[in-house]
Amino acid sequence: MATDKGGVIEHRAYARVGFLGNPSDVYNGRTISFSLGNFWASVRLEPSENLSILPHPVHDLVQFDSLPHLVSRLQSDGYYGGVRLLMAICRIFHNYCKDNGIHLHDGNFKLSYDTNIPRQTGLSGSSAIVCAALSCLLDFYQVRHLIKVEVRPNLILEAEKELGIVAGLQDRVAQVYGGLVYMDFNKKYMDAFGHGDYRRMDIDLLPPLYLIYAENPSDSGKVHSTVRQRWLNGEKFIISSMEEVAKIALEGRAALIEKDNEKLASLMNRNFDLRRQMFGDDALGDVNIEMVEVARQVGAASKFTGSGGAVVVFCPQGPSQAKLLEDACKTAGFVFMPIKVMPPFLNEIDLKTMSTT
Ligand SMILES: Nc1ncnc2c1ncn2[C@@H]1O[C@H](COP(=O)(O)OP(=O)(O)O)[C@@H](O)[C@H]1O
Ligand SMILES: O=C(O)[C@H]1O[C@H](OP(=O)(O)O)[C@H](O)[C@@H](O)[C@@H]1O
Ligand SMILES: [Mg+2]
């Protein structure tokens, strides 16, 4: 966090990679995710007379060169930017504090944001904006010590649910905790504690990984809505496949600890294959499937980082294979980069609020 003399508060929240087990987090499963240092969103809170939420000059564009410009912009980026996310977290934060007897002073603020997370690419650009905003609110109202770390991902998710975005908790957990986290969302635990069972893991257990993405925004809410409904309807195939995806995180945790790279690679591939069977190629989109295939063609293991748009790749054969991958991505027109994992970022006040380690 940075605070200056005028009381301005700024927080960053990083993108995240759903490494194993996603999207079973949306379905009482398990995941392993980590905080991705390559991209982040930042939110700035400035004390002020009135309360205002400032639109981002690019992401919340409302002025256009022409009608065709407006139409093509909607075509590529959809109707929404980050303003609705900031408003939603303000509302959820306020209501949570009210319901839990947490007093909020009556000062006002201006809230603005920026982000370099490629838009709607399954790198959790949406919750990064919400997470950074929540951090600003915790500090502005000086209530960080009163809101447990484990509960914060719920608040971030609630803000998005409020907007009709179907999503799970894994992004938000990785963004609140930083580092590498194993998460179990089984119903029994969730019902008993109101949040998942989150275990921090050493980031050094991860092998070198690579990120591929393409400019093809996909809406996680839309991608998930049909499968979510089929799951709620009790469709056996979806339920058993999701259970298998959740098991991948469990087995992946052991594979990471044992440094069993062969196992890790096969789990990543299986994870994607199961997603493909459940969601179908139409929902996943050609470009996304091609990214996974480009990686597989050089013998690498790959899967989506989120609901689509970006792919995480593991090259078990090392740097020579990574070079082949880089060349293949260049030819296919995909962005390729080595992944930078962010270490955990909980401070002492945060850690004191936690009931688990
Ligand atoms: N880069 C961005 N800038 C502004 N708003 C964004 C950005 N990315 C996502 N959003 C907002 O979050 C919503 C949900 O995005 P989502 O499909 O979850 O993408 P992501 O995979 O990045 O989380 C979008 O409809 C939009 O309102
Ligand atoms: O489908 C997934 O793997 C994830 O989809 C969403 O993330 P996004 O970055 O918006 O694509 C969702 O929020 C996650 O909980 C899912 O695991
Ligand atoms: Mg999202």
TrEMBL record:
All residue ranges annotated as the GHMP kinase C-terminal domain in the record: 254-329
EC number: 2.7.1.43
Catalytic reactions on record: D-glucuronate + ATP = 1-phospho-alpha-D-glucuronate + ADP + H(+)
Keywords: ATP-binding, Carbohydrate metabolism, Cobalt, Kinase, Magnesium, Manganese, Metal-binding, Nucleotide-binding, Transferase
Domain of life (superkingdom): Eukaryota
Entries under Pfam families matching the protein: GHMP_kinases_C, GHMP_kinases_N
Cross-referenced InterPro entries: GHMP_kinase_C_dom, GHMP_kinase_C_sf, GHMP_kinase_N_dom, Glucuronokinase-like, Ribosomal_Su5_D2-typ_SF
Start and end residues of each GHMP kinase N-terminal domain: 96-179
GO MF assignments: ATP binding; glucuronokinase activity; metal ion binding
Entry cofactors: Mn(2+); Co(2+); Mg(2+)
Family: Belongs to the GHMP kinase family.
Function: Sugar-1-kinase with a strict substrate specificity for D-glucuronic acid and ATP. Involved in the biosynthesis of UDP-glucuronic acid (UDP-GlcA), providing nucleotide sugars for cell-wall polymers. May be also involved in a salvage pathway for glucuronic acid.
Protein name (record): glucuronokinase
The organism of origin for this protein: Castilleja foliolosa
